[in-house]
Amino acid sequence: MTDWSDPDAIDCSDGATFDALLDRADTREKGHYFEFFAEGDELTHDPGLRLSQHGSEQWMGQTLNHDPAYWRSDTARERGFEDVPVHPDYLLACVMGITVEDLSEKGGYFLGRTDVEFHRSARPGTELAVTSRVVDTRTSSSRPAYGIVTWATEGRDRETGETLVSYQRTNMIPRREPAATDGGGEATGRPDDPDGGPDLPETLLAPEGGRFEDFRDALDDAEAESAAVAYRHERGRTMDDQLVAGLPLATLNTARQHHNRDEMADSPSGDIVAYGDVTRSIALAHARSDEATYRERRFADERFHSFVTLGDTIYGFTRVLDCDGDAGPEAVGAVTFEHVAFNQDNTPVYSGRRTALVQRYQ
Ligand SMILES: CC(C)(COP(=O)(O)OP(=O)(O)OC[C@H]1O[C@@H](n2cnc3c(N)ncnc32)[C@H](O)[C@@H]1OP(=O)(O)O)[C@@H](O)C(=O)NCCC(=O)NCCSC(=O)C[C@H](O)C(=O)O
């Protein structure tokens, strides 16, 4: 009879015994099933995350976000920051990253996010305090193995208590009953077209440059011509290990989708998938490289349409929706864009509306 208090009791060279041992063992679970969440619940997320210059630069370098205001102090000061802040995409990904253990580690799909508001910039060294409130829960009618949960999340500076960023996000979360599967059919990634044919403007105009006036003039021209202002960005970025597994792990995002190939082998994607915030940041970087951004303001109606896996390449498409010359300081105006990230097969993987302050010509 084996003495199980003996430190040498587990014979790792005997595969069959070890298999039987694993079969018999309960698993200490991580994350929560759908049933755990009830409307109005408040959650305080405990993981410690200190925003760092290295983390921000690593995020920006890998996602092609090269705006000098987030790299260099002279430009940062010219743009009204006290010193070089961390990049807003990194801040947002970190705030969401540390909520994953409590909210979405059990798996399921990050469907979308809205009301993303940047309240103030954050410096490297800021320690985060993040809380979430359950806003809505419902079962999924199309995927009985899942429920759909929406949380309102707020990321604050732990020292001053000031709110840095807030948003609402929605995920599919596996239900304990019926047993979790990876859901129904594969996503097509393409929205249904009820009329059976595309309804497109005759002309798509691109702005002459990346300043506020260029976007405003292009919108004026489009109105005169019954056209739309919409264009593609040339850059693409192929998803490698660093992007798919490295960046989410650096934000303490524990979702198995991004780093556990063994678990993901049986899922519809068949492999690990990119963190939505990485995919989005790459497409936004493509767009920002074609505009003179001054500040990020807000995002709305962000949707993740289809998986992004290793080897996929992310491109960007932008439509200009609105220009507001009265918003922000004199030297800027607000532009509202719709950005779409798409892959090498032209399948949309992300879309969202973004309002940014864009510099004017001097
Ligand atoms: C997830 C998908 C496979 C779903 O595909 P499909 O079934 O075609 O989509 P539907 O549009 O029918 O939506 C299904 C149900 O979900 C509801 N929904 C969808 N979007 C939203 C939203 N923004 N807000 C609220 N509810 C939403 C619909 O109403 C449907 O409800 P019901 O009819 O009752 O079932 C497909 O969309 C897909 O593959 N998406 C990509 C997902 C993805 O890759 N996300 C990013 C990577 S995962 C990640 O980042 C995880 C992250 O770390 C984390 O922890 O959250």
From TrEMBL:
One of its GO terms (molecular function) is lyase activity. Residues 172-207 are annotated as: Disordered. It comes from the Archaea. InterPro entries: HotDog_dom_sf, MC_hydratase, MC_hydratase_acr, MCH/BMMD. This is Acyl dehydratase.
